[in-house]
């Protein structure tokens, strides 16, 4: 977000242009750049309907890293093919001094997805420094693994119907 500016405005990186979140998301998607949302505690509280997670996915967000998740919203994120990950206790975007200029990699999914497995967030800062943070994957059940691996619940169900 942009300090001192209200509403859905962000800074498009690496150019530094201010624009609406929607416009930035379209530009990132056109460039093939997946997005990550960093959030605080109880992410998704008050927005547990599936449309909230659907909107997140339609904006090109592929990963949400939060301190904690509202139970139903976390499940809905998985159902939309968005990967929920949780910071370790005492860690958040503020303690990591994230300023929006970083580039991120998520490492540890190369051999597949397991419920509540550990993954590593690699933070590449604009000054050339790199930092690694261990996260917990918040895919909690075997069926959620299937949903995520198929890109969400709808593609999963459609593939299952086509098998019949």
List keywords for this structure.
Aconitase, domain 4; 26% strand; alpha/beta; 5 helices; six-stranded mixed beta sheet; two-stranded antiparallel ribbon; 8 strands
How would you characterize the overall build of this protein?
The radius of gyration is 16 Å and the shape is globular. Helix 4 packs across helix 5. Strand 3, helix 2 and strand 4 form a beta-alpha-beta unit. The strands form two sheets. A six-stranded mixed β-sheet has the order 3-4-5-8-7-6. It has a two-stranded antiparallel sheet with strand order 1-2. The chain has five helices and eight strands; from the N terminus they run ββαβαβαββββαα. It has one domain: Aconitase, domain 4. With 164 residues, the protein is of the alpha/beta class.
């Amino acid at each position: 977000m942009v300090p001192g500016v209200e509403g859905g405005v962000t800074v498009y990186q690496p150019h530094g242009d201010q624009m609406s979140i929607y416009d930035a998301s379209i530009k990132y998607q056109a460039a093939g750049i997946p997005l990550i949302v960093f959030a605080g505690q109880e992410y998704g509280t008050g927005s547990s309907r599936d449309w909230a997670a659907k909107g997140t996915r339609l904006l090109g967000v592929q990963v949400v890293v939060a301190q904690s998740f509202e139970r139903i919203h976390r499940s809905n994120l998985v159902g939309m093919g968005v990967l929920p990950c949780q910071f370790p206790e005492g860690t958040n975007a503020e303690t990591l001094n994230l300023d929006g200029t970083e580039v991120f990699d998520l490492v540890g999914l190369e051999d597949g997805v397991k419920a509540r497995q550990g993954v590593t967030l690699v933070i590449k800062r604009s000054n050339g420094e790199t930092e690694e943070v261990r996260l917990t994957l918040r895919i909690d059940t075997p069926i959620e693994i299937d949903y995520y691996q198929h890109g969400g619940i709808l593609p999963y169900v459609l593939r299952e119907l086509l098998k019949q």
